[in-house]
Amino acid sequence: MSTTSHSIDPNASDRDTPAPEAAAIQAAPSRTGLWLLMILLAATFLGWYLYGKRAPIAPPAPLPPIVALPPLDRGANDAGAIANAANTANKPNAAKPASATKPVAAKPRATQARPIANRSPEPRYPAAALRRGEGGTVVLRVNVGADGVPDDIAVSRRSGSRDLDRAAMTAVRDWRFKPATRNGREVASVVEQPVEFRPMQ
Known about the structure:
Strand order of the largest sheet: 3-2-7
Order of helices and strands: HHEHEEHEEEE
Radius of gyration: 42 Å
Number of strands: 7
């Protein structure tokens, strides 16, 4: 192994300069990298363009709302039917005409959800609203499940006081309802529930 010493002279003329072929070989990879970058960029823009041109996905069709119907008033009809039944029961062997109409089966009633009295405590009157003498009626839109538990509560009509609106919503969340019925089955429904606040005078 031989050790040769080289002097470091800044004015020396025999510097190591690469051969022209080596410079061409080193420049070639940078041009290849540039082409690869251009192809990748073009593919990205083409993908972005094609992705933007695809048909939008339509949202699912909304479900029809469940509307709670008020209970039917059958008081007058029931009294007449009872009287007719009593009259026909008193007449033995009454001949029925041949053109008698068939008895109509009673349609099942649809009822609306109602709060249960002993499971619906009065809302707590906010102290700040009581000091200011604020009062009013809040109407809440309550989604009542088939089990009688309120699912979603929103303010339908405000009372004019944010404190009273919040107190009403907090109270109704803890209420229990007798669920609405359709065809004899308990179903989920939406009910508008008024909550009244009256400051003591």
